[in-house]
Amino acid sequence: xxxxxxxxxxxxxxxxxxxxxxxxxxxxxxxxxxxxxxxxxxxxxxxxxxxxxxxxxxxxxxxxxxxxxxxxxxxxxxxxxxxxxxxxxxxxxxxxxxxxxxxxxxxxxxxxxxxxxxxxxxxxxxxxxxxxxxxxxxxxxxxxxxxxxxxxxxxxxxxxxxxxxxxxxxxxxxxxxxx
Length: 179
Hints:
The protein has helices at residues 8-30, 34-59, 67-94, 98-127, 134-150, 162-169, 171-177. The protein is globular. It is mostly helical. The protein has 7 helices and no strands.
């Protein structure tokens, strides 16, 4: 990616959020303690929310240096930071609630999936290039993978459960996204 590409810093942020999320998940699944569980959940939530944060920046090109877009970007940035801080505060100070956490992440993920799907369809119709549909195709891959996370089942053979398959299901779209 060229150094001067205007969205570069957002892509780098996206990759760092993903990296931290994966590392925290590995640590938690290796050593299941209260603090590693919280790191896993908070990092995953930050990663999902950063995906939603980035989507309108790319789709509506909020990175452009116009006063209106810069104002919208500032408001969007503050809103996402406040939402994340509120989410963590609720889980930390009021109640550690697995159902709420999952619902919040699914809602944020669904919203970003809808944005990318809309973007892909409208862009593909305009450009008639298969690469224009890639974000929507990635969403189509992630929906069944996410279903593994939501429709949990006991481990097959004592080892392979829905959660591990969810993690496996996120490898292909990650590679695809960065191509």
